Amino acid sequence: MFYNCSKLTSIPQLDTSKVTSMSNVFGYSNITSLTDLGGFKNLSISVTSGLLDRCPNLTVESLMNVINNLATVSDKSLKLGSTNLNKLTADQIAVATAKGWTLTA
C-alpha cells in the first residue's frame, strides 16, 4: 500500500473495518520517517508482520491512536516491533489486552 513512500511522515486514521489482510502494508516502504498515525478504525484481524514493526519512530500518541481504535476481538495479535512496544506503559498495553489483543515485538 505504501510502497516507496519513504518520506511519508503522517497518515490519517484509516477505516479498516472491511480489511481482510494488513500484512506488509508498510513492509516494503522503508517508512522510518512516519511519526504521526491516526490509527486503524475497527481493526479486527491479526497483524503479525510488516505493519507497525516497520515504523519505529511512531509517537506514543500514534500508537495509542491504533490501540484505542482496535475492535474488541478474541485472541488476536498486533506486532508493534520492540522499539514501539518499549514506548508503552503497562497501563497502555492493558487497553489492548482488555480488547482481546496481544501486542508483540
Q: What does it look like?
A:
- The strands form three sheets. Strands 1-3 form a two-stranded parallel sheet. Strands 2-4 form a two-stranded parallel sheet.
- It has three helices and six strands; from the N terminus they run ββββαβααβ.
- The longest helix has 9 residues.
- The protein is globular.
- The model has no long low-confidence stretch (mean pLDDT 91).
- It has 105 residues and is an alpha/beta fold.
- The two termini are 22 Å apart.
Draw up the topology in text:
Blueprint: E1 10-11, E2 14-15, E3 36-37, E4 40-41, H1 60-68, E5 76-79, H2 82-85, H3 90-98, E6 101-104
Parallel strand pairs: 1-3, 2-4, 5-6
Describe the structure concisely.
With 105 residues, this protein is an alpha/beta fold.
**What portion of residues is helical?**
10-25%
The largest sheet has its strands arranged as 1-3
Average pLDDT taken over every residue:
91
> What characteristic shape results from the CA principal axes?
globular
Radius of gyration, in angstroms, nearest whole number: 12 Å
- Number of DSSP strand runs: 6
Give the structural class: alpha/beta
Instruction: Give the low-confidence spans.
Output: none
Instruction: State the end-to-end CA separation.
Output: 22 Å
Biggest sheet details: 2 strands, parallel
| % residues in beta strands | 15-25%
Q: Counting H and I runs of at least 4 residues, what is the number of helices?
A: 3
Order of helices and strands: EEEEHEHHE
